[in-house]
Amino acid sequence: GKTSVSYMILEIxxxxxxxxxxxxTVEYLSANKRRLDVDVNMTTPDPKNLYSxxxxxxxDGVEYVVMEVSSHxxxxxRTDAIFFEVAVFTNLTSEHLDFHSxxxxxxxxxxxxxxxxxxxxVNIDTEYGERxxxxxxxxxxxxxGCSCQAGDFCALNANVSYDGIKYVF
Length: 169
What we know:
3-stranded mixed β-sheet; 8 strands
């Protein structure tokens, strides 16, 4: 979910005429989708490489950076000095239990991102999304829930085809 969502947000920003960069699993991009020449193969690079990329993006006139933040990076404090304007939670599956001791450890690593964020968008149609949403509400942190049952936002009448996905938001 992180990769797809990050590209969607990048495209929305660029369509709105906003210069944006991307730090993610597939590639690192600066303004106008210029690939950054960085020899790193992690979703969220170590601070030295990450801050070098952010500096390049700043010099290129990037206004917003869309960043995939891995649970590994959060657990290893690679993004501790970064304040995020918005954090997005899509889902939590057992894919990284080779690194995290259990699902609760994994959840707490992910939760750290939302403590570093001004606003949050959370998919509450999942057990961990609902749990995160409740924790954010208890803290009084501004959040939005995405759900077709009880959220602030919902995708209706979804139609998936080879041409893409169309829906009413």
